[in-house]
Structure formats: C-alpha cells, structure tokens
Amino acid sequence: MIGVSIAFRGLKAYGRHLTRAEMQFRRKMLANTRQAAKLVAREMKSGVVRRTGRLMKAIGYDVKLKGSEVHAWIGPETKKAWYGHLVEGGAGPHSIPGWGHDHPGAKAQPYMGPALKRTEQEQLRLMGRTFQLVA
Q1: For residue 71, what are the β-bridge partners?
Q2: Which of 11, 60, 71, 123 has the most Cβ atoms closer than 10 angstroms to its Cβ?
C-alpha cells in the first residue's frame, strides 16, 4: 500500500481494566482520527489529476488501534491504482523491458503532500478535540 501513515505514540497501555475516562478517551481518539483521515482523503481526491478516475476512486483511509497506538492509513489502494506514487513523485526516463522502447518519464503531479498541507489546521483542530476534558 502507498499513502500517508500517521501514528500517535505514547498512549498509555490499557490492559483489561480500563477506567471509564480511559475508554472515552480511546473512543474519542479513534473517532477524531477517522474524521481527520476522511478529511485528508477527500482533499486528496479533489486534488488528484483525473484521466480515467481510477486513481481518485482508489483513494481511501483506514484507522486502527494497534496496541496503544492509533494508526491512520490514507491514500490509494495499490491493488486498484498501483501507480499512485508515480503521479505524486513523478518518474524519470526509463526503458520498459519487452516493449522495445523507452519511456520519457512523467512530471510529478503531487496530490498527497498538498492535501496534508491544506488540511493541516483542521486536522490539528480535530485531534485537539480528543484532549478536551472527558466528562
């Protein structure tokens, strides 16, 4: 998979005996991370160059709790659009084995990095909501 991976480290290891506040905090962290990931994915889709629409349709997100860390994966699924990283970063001239000719390369058309940058303040606002007092 290609895309953007975000990990929040340093959360307390919870074990079996979570307090009510700890469970609420974990739920808020997951919910707010999902909202931030959805926001970034939507922005990536709006900024990607469209030829066939396959790359845009392949962009998604997934958020999981792994131990005490929350991980967010955001970007195109490689099985649906394996070339997403080439659109983002471009490609230099290269030969294509078996095709009998060289490829001239492709100019970078970034959509992942700019989407992260454009949504940075909203991401911070969403994640900051996690740390508001849990009642």
Answers
A1: 7, 64
A2: 123
80 Cβ contact partners less than 8 Å away, ≥ 6 residues apart = 54, 57, 58
Instruction: Give CA separation, 39 vs 46, 79, 107, in Å.
Output: 11, 22, 26
The answer to the question of residue 97 being in a domain is no
Instruction: Give the count of domains, the chain.
Output: 1
Indicate whether 100 belongs to any domain: no
Q: Determine, yes or no, domain membership for 96.
A: no
pTM given for the model: 0.80
CA distance 132 to 20: 15
Fill in the DSSP letter of residue 66.
Answer: E
User: Does residue 124 sit within a domain?
Assistant: yes
Instruction: Measure the CA–CA gap between 2 and 82, rounded to whole angstroms.
Output: 8
pLDDT tens, residue by residue, 62-114: 999 887 788 999 999 999 999 999 999 999 999 988 888 899 999 999 999 99
DSSP-derived 3-state class of residue 92: coil
Note down the domain range covering 80. 4-90+105-131
